Amino acid sequence: MTSSDKQTLNIGVVGTGRWATRSHIPGWQRDPRCRVVGLADVDRDLVKAAGDQFKVDRVTDDYRELVEDPDIDVIDVVTGDAMHFEVTMAALEAGKHVLCEKPVNHDYHEVVRAADLAASKGLKTKLGFTFRYAPATMYAAELIKQGFVGTPYMINAYEQNSQWLDPMNPLRQQNDPSDPDRIQVASIEGYGAPVIDIMHWWMGAPLTSVVGTMRNFVPRRMVRDTGRMERMNIDDGDMFIAEFEGGGLASVQSSFVTVGNFPGIEVRIYGSEGAIIVRLVEENGICQTIKTATKDEVEFVEREIPERFFPNGGSSLEAWPFLFYSNLVADFATEILSGGPENQGDFRQGALVQHTINAFEASHRQRAWVDFPLAGTESSQAQTPAA
């Protein structure tokens, strides 16, 4: 039976931690076309609790049980980063469509390999680019496509996140034991990726070069796995500049230590005809706003987001993990069930975002501008901004 013949999808979720239970599982269960039929996690108590909470009877500590089940259509990978690639590749090899939290792999070459494998098997993929699916973001993308901003000139994209301003708030250790003095990528990959995704999407032009730097502002932190204060040499603050074909510019900031309510995503695009500001921050009970201005009316005015960008019954008063992820999984379900070529925010887009992150890191290491694509990369693989 082809995807276009199916009317419902059976979902297996691998990983049942906080993000899975806040966004992924309830997002799937919100869509009547989707059935979460199995949960897997190496922590037996955690997966049992999730099964009880969401009334999913089938729980296991071995993800292969779900991957190898012929009745499961989609594997949703919500494990820790270290297991993303292993579970993803196993699921693709087994013929499953895959939703994976970012990053699929820290090396963009491997993300390209996963994208190629999915394409060879006719499978759909999707990255957990949560903020691409915020109603405000999607509305802005429609306005840009309609020509509201004219020719895009500049994007300012940042992510404020005060969760780890307090060093006592546990964070997963990411040090390289072979080189403890080398700052390891953390913030730009985990929290910068969503704004980098939007940057490519909205600019709609090939990236040509980048420059920037990373900082480790809080050197000693509570390590999640050990419960001890230890040296954690990670990038808890980053700033980068990007140049695009045709002359467009972008600035990108990501951080674990910027005061403000998270997720703290804000993207501003300025063009020849107008400008748009999308702010995805939970403030005063509202999780998103969009403001626009034109060259003739330069004062920014808030716009009402049309109902068509929300899931059924949804509103900006909902918690953002549930609202935005409801849109993400609904979009994925539509892409799979339609059987058509549409597949936004897929692994190919994920490879482009990861490639950009790798280029940012290279710029920091070299203390210089870096050309994009990176040397030795086929541009056809590196530059495929997804609509």
Automatic annotation (TrEMBL):
Chain ranges of the Gfo/Idh/MocA-like oxidoreductase N-terminal domain: 9-126
Q: Which residues form the GFO/IDH/MocA-like oxidoreductase domain?
A: 139-276
Recite the UniProt keywords alphabetically: Oxidoreductase
Q: Which InterPro entries match?
A: Gfo/Idh/MocA-like_OxRdtase_N (IPR000683), Gfo/Idh/MocA_oxidrdct_glycsds (IPR050463), GFO_IDH_MocA-like_dom (IPR055170), NAD(P)-bd_dom_sf (IPR036291)
**Would the keyword Oxidoreductase be found if you checked this record's keyword annotation?**
yes
Gene3D superfamilies listed in its UniProt record: Dihydrodipicolinate Reductase, domain 2, NAD(P)-binding Rossmann-like Domain
* UniProt xrefs under Pfam families: GFO_IDH_MocA, GFO_IDH_MocA_C3
Q: For this protein, what is any one GO molecular function term?
A: nucleotide binding
Q: What is this protein called?
A: Predicted dehydrogenase
